[in-house]
From TrEMBL:
Annotated protein name in UniProt: Uncharacterized protein
Region called Disordered, residue ranges: 1-27, 288-310
Naturally occurring in which organism (per UniProt): Aegilops tauschii (Tausch's goatgrass)
PANTHER family per UniProt: F-BOX DOMAIN CONTAINING PROTEIN, EXPRESSED (PTHR38926), F-BOX PROTEIN SKIP19 (PTHR38926:SF28)
Organism superkingdom: Eukaryota
Biased composition (Polar residues): 1-10
Length: 318
């Protein structure tokens, strides 16, 4: 018996011979991917993208994509209204040496519209004067691990009259007595002040104790005060309580010169939040080391003058 041809088989199945192989057997070609021109992204959409990134990333990468991205990252002050530069945002630790440049660049790009600064090591003495342009808007300044600043910032910080929050934490082992004094006189809106050191160093009675107290007593509108590992005395704390009558939060952990007697405890009992010198540090958010309780070899000190700006400050020699 003769074998039917493919054509006759198709006819038996009711299919015309011209449709072999069936259409569904044909290999389907994938559509070509559409190439996007990111340079043509609308400005509003581009700003939304940049706002989702850490500012460290904006300074390091997206602005190098193309000219429109570069201009948006450089010329849009709204991106830099709240500056947040943290060491943890650096993808490459080897680039930490450029962090100061990033801090200055971020402040410049705010163009006087900066409202808040959170800096971990990115702000130095070059960036502080640039913040004066934002004096009418800047309400929060938090300087953490900014080891290149010292008490000379008092000359510029006195212009930041709208400050409501100031933090100087782990910025070396320097004293900031003149800065506290300038802030106390020039920043009447200040509500939160934090001054923290990474290590308490015990001083003899004739040493550098209560250096910042006079300035803090001028901060009469304070609601929250944190002094960590500072060399304030019992008398100094009493003076602060006499002046800062609106306080409702006090943290003096690792301030081991303070002796909490019955009178001080009674005065502090009204605070909503109270942390005493020997209280637990389990919830403390910054790095610190064990206190140095030896006074046998106090650190030498020297008087330094600061150029044409005038003024002199007592500094530790390390």
């Amino acid at each position: 018996m003769a074998t039917p041809s493919p054509s006759s088989s198709l006819l038996l199945e009711g299919r015309p011979p011209g449709l072999w192989p069936p259409p569904e057997w044909k290999k389907k070609t994938k559509p070509q991917a559409v190439t996007r021109d990111w340079a043509d992204l609308p400005r509003d959409a581009l700003l939304l993208v940049l706002e989702k990134l850490h500012q460290v990333d904006v300074l390091r990468g997206p602005e190098l994509v193309c000219r429109p991205w570069h201009l948006a990252a450089r010329d849009e002050p709204s991106l830099w209204r709240r500056i947040d530069l943290r060491l943890s945002h650096l993808p490459d630790p080897s680039s930490v040496w450029r962090f100061h440049e990033m801090g200055c660049a971020a402040v410049r790009r705010s163009r006087g519209s900066c409202e808040a600064v959170y800096s971990e090591g990115a702000i130095d003495e070059e960036a502080i004067p640039l913040l004066v342009e934002s004096a009418h808007l800047l309400k929060s300044l938090r300087l953490i691990n900014c080891i290149w600043i010292n008490d000379r910032i008092c000359y510029n910080i006195s212009h930041l009259v709208m400050l409501e929050e100031l933090e100087i934490s782990n910025c070396g082992v320097r004293k900031f007595s003149s800065t506290c004094f300038a802030v106390g006189y020039s920043c009447p809106h200040l509500k939160r002040f934090r001054l923290s050191s990474s290590c308490f160093i015990k001083r003899p009675v004739w040493g550098a104790v209560d250096c910042e107290v006079e300035g803090i007593t001028r901060m009469r509108g304070l609601r929250s005060l944190q002094l960590f590992a500072q060399t304030i005395s019992t008398t100094g704390l009493a003076a602060i309580l006499d002046s800062c009558v609106q306080l409702d939060s006090l943290d003096i952990r690792h301030c081991f010169h303070v002796e909490m007697g019955d009178e001080l405890m009674s005065r502090c009992s009204k605070f909503e939040i109270l942390r005493l010198p020997h209280d637990s540090t389990d919830d403390y958010d910054l790095e610190f080391s064990a206190p140095d309780m030896s006074t046998e070899s106090p650190r030498p000190r020297r008087m330094r003058n600061y150029g044409d700006e005038g003024g002199a400050f007592l500094e530790d020699v390390y």
